[in-house]
Amino acid sequence: MNIIIQSLSQIIMPFNLMLITLGTLFGMVCGALPGLSSSMAIILCLPFTYSMDPVSGVLLLVSVYVGGATGGSISAILLKTPGTPEAVATTFDGYPMSQRGDAGLALGLAVSASSFGTIFSAICMVISAPLLAVLALKFQSAEYFALGLVGLSCITSIGSKNQMKAILSVLLGLMFSTIGIDSINGIERFAFKQPFLLNGINYISVMIGAFAIAEVYRNVEELSHRDTSTVTNSKVSLVIMKFSEMLKMWKTFIKSAIIGTVIGIIPAAGGSIASLISYGEAVRSSDTPEEFGKGIPEGIIAPESANNAAVGGSMVPTMVLGIPGSPVAAVIMAAFMILGLRPGPLLIRDQPILLNAIFFGMLIAALLLFVGGRFVTREFARILKLPYPLLGTLIATLGVVGAYSLKNSFYDVAIMFIFGFIGYYFEKFKYSSSAFILGLILGELVENSLRKQIIIGNGSWSGFVERPLSLFILMVAAITFLSPIISKYKKNKKAKTEKSTH
Amino acid sequence: MEIVFNSIVALFILLYMFFAMQLGASNTEGDIFGAGGFPLVIAVLGIVVLIVITRDILKNKKKIDIPMFNLKTAGGKAVTLNVMAVSLYVVLLNFVGFIIATPIFLITSAKSMGYKEHRALAIYTILVSAVLVFVFGKIFFIPLPRGISVFRDLSYLIY
Amino acid sequence: MKKILALVFIFVMVFTMVGCAPKAEAPAPAPAKESAQASAPEQAAPEAKKVDFPKRPIEMVIPFGTGGASDIFARGYAQIVEKYLGKPLTAVNKGGAGTIEGLTYAYGAPADGYTVLEITPSLLIVEAQGKSSIKFRSEFEPIMRVQSDVVSIGVSVNSQFQNIDELIEYAKANPKKLKIGGLSPGGLDDYIANGFALAAGIEWTYVPYKSGSELKAAVLGGELDVYQDKLISFLPLVESGDVRPLVVLNDKKLDSVEVLKDVPSSVEKGIDFTQGSWRGFVIKKGVPEEVKKIIIEAFEEAYKDQAYKEMEAREMTNVREGYLNSEDFGKAWDKEFDSYVEIFKLMGVIK
């Protein structure tokens, strides 16, 4: 307890508070702009930390990380352009809600959920980091495969309107995920000697294309029947949800935060998988699954709470074992080393103040988001008041610049362009772009861990069912996959019997 | 119409399967799937699902309206124009660089969607270009496209 | 109309403010830079006057994604070189396709000295495997090799193997049974695992992982039998008691590293294999001699800088001398290239 008070007094200094505020804001801008990643934001802040004392440096980097995980939702909600891969699930309900006119509500919910997820995972981290870190080691190839299946099986919930087409979309996504160098034996697959395909298809450019650009095409098509100069989205409400109303959805908040924290802890899966699984779970367990995708609050809370909880989760193995729980955490760990700190069991024992610094950094950043962030962020919704020709042009420009910035390459712009068309046709024929991206994101994890487990088991499959944790997760996957199908079947049957009795 | 789409998807999956079969066996001990195993599994599943979907379509025919590239409709025209504007932008980026191509695109695209307020458009164009160059080029050090010869030298003055 | 303008204006202001913010935070490092610049012109100025180079920032192409060891190194080194060149070096990450994208990008830039490429053994491996149409060794010229890493091999503390002899004995009796991890299939780790096995007369199975974290988790979680890694990643796990070090791939024991000083070296054990990673810089062939000279001098000066010595100590890359000047670096390529070709042929990666 003493040490907590001691470190708190060291942290709550005007300079540090300013750093946290600036770090969070910088992270949010970086997260909101497609093509700029949190790792990049952290690396750009790194040189400034050289001259600070380690605690201040850590506070800055951690707040950038928290801000980055939050910022992605802004562009996801307003422009249907996920700024970060973690925000992909936020577009599912966030964008419809802002189109309905409740952009302020959507942004407020996203920021509140983000801040809750951060606080939840920070508390988990500080209370039981050494215990939780063990989880990172329990997850081996068999468990990763099972987890990947849980992610894929969300498809029956996410694409419940047309399950067959959603499944085909996932399969197509999986197919695209196999393009590039095979991760087990280094053979080129489906790359046709093109260097830009060797590293696979970047799913951020696919996301920008299939969501944002396709949406621009759709809007352009629709607006062509009207005189667009005068068309402005006049009903942009900036009202945010009351605290008491949010409390009613505590179940979604907590369940998503737990999912996010756990998935954040394990190294090979991070915020994007956490938010997709959390969204799928929210749909599956909801009483009104058909309302998802039309802009309901739970559809924003679930992914945002989970992807920010993954931030705290990913810091757990980083601090305790020196094994970063996510690529961004790996950058933070590299930064720690530059600051002269070496994460690992010794660090927590010798410098407990550092763990507390991370904890308070996250906590203060989250509180800032909750208290002030909701009101600042909702002002961004005003951008929707731009006449569509200007807004649509802005989205297209941001898409091109964002895709280019991923690797400073036009190939990603071309991929974005192609998926703009694919996303457009998918929508017309009732296929699911979200499902496609789910397959694209999870494809590598599933294939890679499947084959690794079989290699480890010398060609045998038994590892998947012999390992208790793997078996358990496989069962979760089966339930996730089947329960929406069964409930739909039951509903259809009920409808039929009702019809026949009438 | 949807049958055409399904045929394209089928063709894609079959091609994918064809290339997957060319991938040789793995020389890693115990890797029973090899590079082509997983792709084959998903391709077969894809074909099965596609057949189910196609059977459904054939049973209850529905007409879907696809205006894109259909130049007879206003929507089709607008989308085609927009696609062309973005393509032009990407091509221009390679030749005249970011600082010149972006304003050109912003104006063409907004106009092609029917925007008429000239003054607002001018201010919007300058602001958006400036902010993008500043944020991406100056803060994040993204080497935005510079174009060739004179344009390349020009860009070095700015970012 | 006015409203729209106001909106756009607010939008711009927010971005500008936020964007400026981190810049304003950093007044502190500036004095260090000034003092260094004051000393720098003494060495660089006479040459610089003749050809007036550099006139603008130089691009440092990093053929890896952001955040890895090679990225952090190149960015750190670029900051030191900046003191001696007088213009900043801006980092351009062109990660992907096992360095091929970075190579292609640097090859496509004009040979005017404004593009410097960071290299590691991966670029030689790409050429050895013929994965790119660009012949690296004949298209680029060395600036210098800055540092080299030592790779160590160990096992989890729960493992039955107490020392390297037991491990090799078991591997000889059970060929291909042991699993050793690494990053990237067909890359440097694959080469080291197989090259070591060849030199020791054993066979084991190499399993590639996507990231260092997954690799470590697989070792500690018991999925992998053998762990290989560079010092900076290897050491913390030894210090925390999770990994038992068995052998360091070096000519002699690493006396300067406390926890590894009793660990035998590969050469002592009769296994003649000491390959590790290294990092250096190249420029495209055809850069004018004067310009090349200025660049090489600035990079050499940076190597002698105290700031680099500190960086090196932090990264633990000072355990084995990695420095090679431009000429020796170029010669070292050919020798290494031949052994890549030899081992990859044996592995069946090259036909």
Automatic annotation (TrEMBL), chain A:
The chain crosses the membrane at residues 17-46, 58-79, 105-137, 144-160, 166-184, 196-214, 253-277, 320-341, 353-376, 388-404, 410-426, 470-489. The keyword Glycosyltransferase does not apply. It holds the Pfam family TctA. The keyword Oxidoreductase does not apply. Residues 17-438 form the DUF112 domain. Keywords: Membrane, Transmembrane, Transmembrane helix. It comes from the Bacteria. This is Tripartite tricarboxylate transporter permease. It comes from Fusibacter ferrireducens.
TrEMBL record, chain B:
Residues 9-145 form the DUF1468 domain. The chain crosses the membrane at residues 7-25, 37-58, 79-101, 121-142. Keywords: Membrane, Transmembrane, Transmembrane helix. The keyword Transmembrane helix applies. It comes from the Bacteria. The keyword Transmembrane applies. InterPro entries: DUF1468. This is Tripartite tricarboxylate transporter TctB family protein. It comes from Fusibacter ferrireducens.
From TrEMBL, chain C:
Gene3D superfamilies: Bordetella uptake gene, domain 1, Periplasmic binding protein-like II. Pfam families: TctC. CDD domains: PBP2_Bug_TTT (cd07012). Keywords: Signal. The keyword DNA damage does not apply. Residues 1-20 form the signal peptide. Belongs to the UPF0065 (bug) family. PANTHER family: BLR1237 PROTEIN, TRICARBOXYLATE-BINDING PROTEIN. This is Tripartite tricarboxylate transporter substrate binding protein. It comes from Fusibacter ferrireducens. The lineage of its organism: Bacteria, Bacillati, Bacillota, Clostridia, Eubacteriales.
